[in-house]
Amino acid sequence: MRKSLRLRLPCKISPSDVSPVNADPQETPESGERQLHSPQRPSVHRWPMHRATLEHLDALVTLEEACFSMPWSRKNFEAELVGNQFSRILMIPHPDHGPKVQAIGYICVWIIFEELRFLNVAVHPDFRRQGLARQLLGEALRLGTEAGCCRGMLEVRETNAAAKKLYESFHFHAYATRKSYYTNPTEDAILMTVESLSTPHRERRDGRGDPRIHHSSIHTVS
């Protein structure tokens, strides 16, 4: 495994977005990086999504740099896209992109036999609070369920209340702490797990949750 702050299986989400995963609280993009313009939120609250490939490398790197002060490098993404058989990256393209695809959100997970491990979630600052991270997380859980995963795992900063709230809506719960896991600033990591790979209750009521997820047999997940 690469020795990177967020590659020790943390899932990062921006505290300003009850939709991305385990972002450091101080990680905010420079104003000059905000180049995308947010359109009206789709009436069905669903965003197009597909699995990322090498052709989306530039888009992923650009999004990562717009979201985090300590972004993954181009080589990090290349390793996930072509060098890791367990890795899956799902991305949401900009709704108004031209010939060159731009990404406004992505999630990276590992499907390792019975485990679904969350590494990263990022949503562009201009598109936060629109449900992108929730949709990405739900789709990752669906993929894990289809692959036969019975447990999921993630880590989150102790003070990242927005991320913890999102995970708890998917029935994640804290089960352990790793002291001084994060740096800049130094902070503990909360390890989270869930007993079943299920979507939030309100998504199931809206008919948007996949019943296969709700009825899957999961031992532990985070």
Task: Report on the architecture of this protein.
With 222 residues, the protein is α+β, with helices and mostly antiparallel strands. The protein has one domain: Aminopeptidase. The protein is 24% helix and 24% strand. It is built from six helices and seven strands; from the N terminus they run βααβββαβαββαα. It has a seven-stranded mixed sheet, sandwiched between helices. β3 and β4 form a beta hairpin. α1 crosses α2. The longest helix is centred in the middle third of the chain and has 15 residues. The radius of gyration is 16 Å and the shape is globular.
Topology record:
Layout: E1 50-51, H1 57-67, H2 74-82, E2 87-93, E3 103-112, E4 115-123, H3 132-146, E5 151-157, H4 161-169, E6 172-182, E7 187-194, H5 201-205, H6 211-214
Parallel strand pairs: 4-5
Antiparallel strand pairs: 1-2, 2-3, 3-4, 5-7, 6-7
CATH superfamily: Gcn5-related N-acetyltransferase (GNAT)
β-strand number: 7
What's the level 1 CATH class?
Alpha Beta
Poorly predicted ranges: 1-44, 198-222
State the major sheet: 7 strands, mixed
Counted up, domains total 1
Shape: globular
Q: Please report the distance between the alpha carbons of the first and last residues.
A: 19 Å
Q: How do the helices and strands follow one another from N- to C-terminus?
A: EHHEEEHEHEEHH
What's the helical proportion of residues? Answer: 10-25%
